[in-house]
From TrEMBL:
Family to which this protein belongs: Belongs to the CdaR family.
Domain of life: Bacteria
UniProt cross-references to SUPFAM superfamilies, sorted A to Z: Winged helix' DNA-binding domain
Annotated CdaR GGDEF-like domain residues: 201-331
Domain PucR C-terminal helix-turn-helix, first and last residues per copy: 385-442
Lineage start: Bacteria, Bacillati, Actinomycetota, Actinomycetes, Pseudonocardiales
Name used for this protein in its record: PucR family transcriptional regulator
InterPro entries tied to this protein: CdaR-like_regulators, CdaR_GGDEF, PucR_C-HTH_dom, PucR_C-HTH_sf, WH_DNA-bd_sf
Amino acid sequence: MAAPGSTASTPPVPSHVPVAHALRRPAGDETAVLRRVVSMCGHLSALAAQNTELADVVTFLADGVGAGVVVLDRRLDELARAGLPGGDDLVGGVREQAGVAGLRTVLAAAARTRRALTVPGSAAAGAATVVAPVSVGDDVSGYLLTASHAGSDLTEDMRLLVTEHAAMVCGVVLGRELVVTAAAGRARQELVEGLLLVRDRDDPEVERWAQHLGFEPGRGYCAVAVSLAGDRAATAFPAVETALGRLAPEAIVAARADEIVAIVPATAGGAPGRGVAPGPLATARAVAAGCVAAMSGRAGASVPIAVGVGNPCDTAAEIARSYAEARHALAASEKLGEFGGVTAFADLGIHRLLLRVPDVTDLRDFAEEVVGALLAEERTGGMEYLATLSAYFEHNNSPRRAAEKLHVHPNTVSYRIRRIEEITGLSLDVRRDRLMAEVAVEILDALGDRSGGGRR
């Protein structure tokens, strides 16, 4: 890495090259070359004031300097190139030229000094490469590299001057793109928020908002809400967004204050030989399960994750309803002390009503009033009355089918049902009593408050 005019193998990082020094006597017509350099810098300044793209800047620079030009971001991914055949690897060449110092050292020096540096060429190649930092505000967002072709009439100092000026223009262009991207991101976030929280479903603007985000009416979508717990929840949000983007590339994904929301479309088309594609709910379940698996499999990052899935919606106006259902499903897993995994609103059944009760204690008190005596009998006698009652209701009051599930004789189920009626004072042939008993059992199932057991 050498400063202009220096031949030492590892010289100190050069300071800014003054214009007077840069414009020393060149070979050939001095006046013409100087005029060209001044004209190039003026044209580059004009580009900075226009709606210019990086491709315009590097193309102009490559033509004017007679050099291959590449713009890299901070990760050394290529953003734009000009004056180089498609297969030419300018970065690889600089790595070889940098030698012991290494490319990272060269880039770090350019970033630290905010000045262009020259990396001398090899004896075989002869051409040197100029590396200039591309700054956006106080940050170095990338690097501009120029490698001169043989026979260029510009001196090394002139190339330093022009490359540094071009890097400044690239910084202006990147800064403008960042502003536009940020503004677009904010606008997109506001559109998503409008869809999730819309109250007037007849508002014609809703459909237009959704179409801007890629929503296709009639395709079928489900809202998926992802919640994370623990101290590392905030830092894991980007990983969730990445997982959702991979699992559902066409989903509308947005990060909110305490969750990630995805509006997941049904899989388009069917797989050859496998019939029709799964519907929106099946697709959303699969995406939710994949997201949980992806987060669970992250090395050294155990962050509890829960996902709620709303029912399908076909219009943009229904997205808010599906999202509210996904939130209810999330609340179900949290309220019932089972945070984690995937909970679909469609699977909640009567729980979707029970969970609207503000205080879970009220639910527990109701269940205690209805089947509290049965719980006490289980604790003292060990008979599985609640399990029998649940199986009996599940199989439409059939002692035979309930017995098959419990692996007992049907007469045993009939006996237990008679005992349940005696203990609770309920008559399961009476609709009101049967409904109260079913709700009580559902509450205990949801709250995990069953007790007793031991023998059948």
